[in-house]
Each structure stands twice: as structure tokens, then as C-alpha cells.
Write a structure and sequence with these properties.
Blueprint lengths: L1 H17 L4 H17 L1 H21 L3
Helix pairs in contact: 1-2, 1-3, 2-3
Length: 64
């Protein structure tokens, strides 16, 4: 369950880079969730760290 949530957040962060929205982020998020599942706890930690870093960087820049 947590892996799917982190996969969705990773997909959202990847998709925000180009700003077009939609399918690309969803597909990459699903792929990231699959990869994280195969790596086990290490994958969840890496995915969570990626999302946390992106959110922290955005807050430091003053974005939403």
C-alpha cells in the first residue's frame, strides 16, 4: 500500500517537470512502484527520499 502511494508521488514529481500532465507521470509512477517493490525496503526508502527531497527543494524555492 505504501509502495503504491510513494509510486504515485514519484510519478507526480516526475510529471511536474514538463508541466504537460497526465499519462507520462502515471506510467512512470507505476514503473517506479514496481521497481521499488522489487528492491524491497531499500526501494521504498529510495523512493520516499526522492519525493521528500523534491518537496523540500520546492519549499525552499518558495513554490507550492
Amino acid at each position: 500500500m505504501i509502495g503504491k502511494i510513494i509510486g504515485a508521488l514519484v510519478g507526480r514529481e516526475i510529471d511536474r517537470r514538463d508541466g504537460r500532465g497526465g499519462l507520462k507521470g502515471a506510467v512512470l509512477g507505476a514503473a517506479a512502484a514496481g521497481g521499488m517493490r522489487r528492491l524491497g525496503p531499500l526501494g521504498l526508502a529510495l523512493g520516499g527520499a526522492y519525493v521528500a527531497k523534491r518537496i523540500l527543494d520546492r519549499r525552499r524555492r518558495g513554490g507550492t
